[in-house]
Amino acid sequence: MARKEAELKANEPSSLPRRSVWLKRSIWTAALGAIALLLWCLSLYIVIVRFEGIPADGRPVKSDVGIVLGARLWNDEPSPGLKERLDLALSLYREGAFRSFIVTGGLDAGGAKLTEAEGMRNYLVAQGVPEADILMDSLSRSTYENLIYAQDLMEANEWSSAVIVTHSYHGSRAADIARKVGFSPVQVSVTDSKVLNIPYHQTREVLAYTKWLVSKLFL
């Protein structure tokens, strides 16, 4: 009896080859997925770092308004990075690229008393811009909302053209969002940063850009 059982077991197909095939397929699938993810991130990273503004020569067509995209305040004042955006907008304003400002951004987490837009307005006024030339969007919490709410202010004031102002690492996504929501022409003026950790922000922007491209499919 024991001999027959041993013979039957010897003739049974082993499950080890099946497990080996399954394991190899799983490894290959994971490897291909990792390569695809790496290529995706690399392609987006190249798009981000190569963006130089629209128009590419950095000279926007004269427009009704400049839209400064928000960033964090420090102690209710623009952070050094946000000041770079505001200083670029100021130079364009003084050169006659636009007549009015829209500053964007809601209340930061962490106990801020002013919205990003209010902090930006205060900075511009301190630099000599008449308060009447500054409109605020104090509700938005993302680049998409920045531009949607800015559009509402443009429509209320019968403005049709704008220059969007931000950092270089953020410019390509801002331009893509502007196209999606209907800005025409799309103009994005950008500044490089001397105060931000650019590799960190560029890497973070890859994730933010990916999230935007997925969200765009459902808009």
TrEMBL record:
Highest taxon of the lineage: Bacteria
Residues of the DUF218 domain: 64-199
Keyword Membrane: yes
TM regions (residue ranges): 27-48
Pfam families noted in UniProt: DUF218
Keywords: Membrane, Transmembrane, Transmembrane helix
Protein's UniProt name: YdcF family protein
The species this protein was found in: Cohnella boryungensis
Upper lineage: Bacteria, Bacillati, Bacillota, Bacilli, Bacillales
